[in-house]
Amino acid sequence: MSGAKDSNLLKWIKLISITGGAQAIVQLTSLLCGLLIIRLLPTKEYALYTLANTMLGTMSLLSDGGISTGVLALGGKVWEDKKKLGIVLSTGLQLRKKFAFFSLSIAVPILVYLLLHHGASILTTVLIVMALIPSFYSTLSDSLLEIIPKLHQDIRPLQENQIKVSVLRLTISALTVFLFPFTFIAIWAAGIPRILGNIKLRKIAGKFTETSNEIDPGVQKEIFKIVKRILPGAIYYCLASQLTVWLISIFGNTANIAEVGALGRLSMLLGVISTMFSILIVPRFARTKESGKALLKRYLFILAAMLVILSGITFIVMLFASQLLWVLGDQYANLEKELVYVMIGYSANVLMGLAIALYTSKGWVINPVYAITLSVLLIISGIFIFDLTKISGVLKLNIFIAVSELMIHFVFGFFKTWSVEKE
């Protein structure tokens, strides 16, 4: 019995070492790339860059709408059958393409308006929108293809691919943005490596699936059941998750947008931990056969572990805020308080995202009517409580909403696992 425990411990140490080491490299190169862009782009250009990347995230969320959750939940049930897993993946990819047009039709007009509103010329706006295409195209399949090796815990090839994409992005950015400090160049530099990485990702996923373009109506129906419950919330959270940038776009100025975007780069310090949990923990939770008290304990332990880690990192940031801001440049040197607010808000959102990922991986979805209603009430309350003409006020609102929604999703996940115990 002791030997089995030792073997299991060694297995986890090896997995964490590989995943953590690889993610440290990925996040470090991403951070260096972000810092390079912050320092090389003029403040106005970086503000436009922040708006474009914010909208790319919105487009990605809208084009998914819960499809990746459905693929993970269904794939977790058939992950050992290459043919069935291939059908689940193929069905998800086809649905994702259909959702892409819906996403573009909503997001692009909004992005065009915001870019023009903050001083971009028509030519610059067109170039920025065109530059987003490679990255957006990759997102249509990246998140689905990654599910396959994650379910099989084939982590090494997945990590190697991510490292290559990150290093290539840093290299291209260093060579191009230095000579041409424009937003659309920085976006192109990120999009091209993602296309190449996407091609490799298809090969990695292909080891565990039979190549097929077959669409299973039954699988599609099951995915749609999840999408119907997630999509309303996904549409809402596309706006709510980027609330900080939207509010500053309305109440603040171009420099404020650049400041929030720059501070957000430092929150990538938490990216290693968040990604490790999504790669190692969530897929295992999805495929576990545990029920009753064991499942509830696993759910609570995972969230408690993440809370301790995030709290520790945030505390370190509080101690060394001035030193961290130094790397961003002199124009961001007086934002110590705002940096701490960003880290607290980001930590709450990461923890909330983990809670959602855990319970949705089992096919459980919170009723969007309740979730959206509570969230809207929180936002309305916060608007009257905080001064939104200041960055600190907007960031406090973000913390208020993130912590409140974290509690909502934690409680939902708790009662769902608790109900399994009672069955």
Protein architecture, described:
With 423 residues, this protein is mainly alpha-helical. It folds into two domains: 1-226, no CATH class; 242-423, no CATH class. It contains 17 helices and no strands. Helix 2 crosses helix 11 and helix 13 (293-319) runs antiparallel to helix 15 (336-360). The protein is globular. The chain starts with a helix and ends with a helix. Keywords: Cell membrane, Membrane, Transmembrane, Transmembrane helix. One of its GO terms (cellular component) is plasma membrane. Its main location: membrane. It is found in: Cell membrane. It is a multi-pass membrane protein.
Name the average pLDDT. Answer: 78
**Share of helix among residues?**
over 70%
**Number of helical runs?**
17
Q: Give the ordered list of helices and strands.
A: HHHHHHHHHHHHHHHHH
Main beta-sheet strand count, sense and barrel state: none
Number of strands: 0
Radius of gyration from the alpha-carbon trace, in angstroms: 21 Å
Silhouette: globular
InterPro entries: Poly_Biosynth_Transport
Keywords: Cell membrane, Membrane, Transmembrane, Transmembrane helix
Protein name: O-antigen/teichoic acid export membrane protein
Main location: membrane
